[in-house]
Design a protein that fits this description.
10 helices; Four Helix Bundle (Hemerythrin (Met), subunit A); mainly alpha; about 5% strand; three-stranded antiparallel beta sheet; Arc Repressor Mutant, subunit A
Length: about 230
């Protein structure tokens, strides 16, 4: 097995088992989406638990989650194996995200308040600061905070929830680790904020969709480089 590349941060005392299972699932999902765990790889409970610094239980529960998502399958007497990830799979994931995000962007442009736009401005400044510090974890968290505030401004909580769950397949760390992506994200956010202030729906929708198009292209290029589809 190609074990995950790093241990999970030590969880605080009293952390819920479900939360730890979610963190393991997120790590394995990201490793599958970026080609670290390649199709046909068997994910061994004991090896994965040791690599991530957790017990076997959250790994078992995480694999059950990933099996429900179609990312791994259970082969009798052999264990869990990573299923093939095609270029069309990646394109479909980003298409679904972009479709939902366009609808949210149109609504946000019409409903967002001045105070909420000012908050997006502040969050984008925080993102810019994290990009300057080159802290990958901080960049990913700041980008997430910006889009969460943007989506919440729509008032369409269920639709935003669907986008959040599809976004689980977006391996944010590979984008946060790219200095060019960070600078581009800050610049696009500035354009988006300007479009929101002038209630320019078409521009806000186009900028939002463009982020997902760019994300798909970057991930597909990375997977091409790893020879995943060679």
């Amino acid at each position: 097995m190609n074990a995950p590349t790093a241990r999970l941060p030590r969880p605080p005392r009293g952390v819920r088992r479900e939360q730890l299972s979610d963190e393991v699932a997120a790590r394995l999902r990201a490793d599958i989406m970026t080609g670290v765990l390649r199709p046909g790889t068997f994910i061994r409970l004991d090896e994965t638990a040791a690599a991530l610094g957790v017990s076997i239980t959250p790994v078992r529960e995480a694999l059950r989650t990933l099996r429900g998502e179609g990312m791994v399958q259970l082969e009798p007497h052999r264990g869990h194996v990573v299923v093939p990830l095609t270029r069309a799979d990646v394109e479909d994931i980003f298409w679904l995200q972009a479709t939902i995000a366009r609808e949210l962007a149109a609504t946000a442009t019409e409903r967002i308040t001045t105070d909420e736009i000012d908050e997006l401005d502040r969050l984008n400044d925080e993102l810019e600061a994290t990009v300057t510090r080159h802290d990958i974890a901080e960049i990913a968290a700041a980008e997430f905070a910006f889009h969460r505030a943007f989506n919440r401004s729509t008032g369409r909580i269920k639709l935003a929830w669907f986008l959040l769950h599809v976004a689980r397949y977006l391996p944010g760390q590979i984008y946060a680790g790219d200095p060019q992506w960070g600078g581009s994200a800050v610049a696009i956010h500035r354009e988006l904020i300007a479009a929101l202030r002038r209630r320019d729906v078409d521009t806000a929708v186009a900028l939002t969709a463009g982020e997902f198009t760019d994300g798909a292209q970057r991930l597909i290029a990375r997977l091409d480089e790893t020879g995943l589809w060679g």
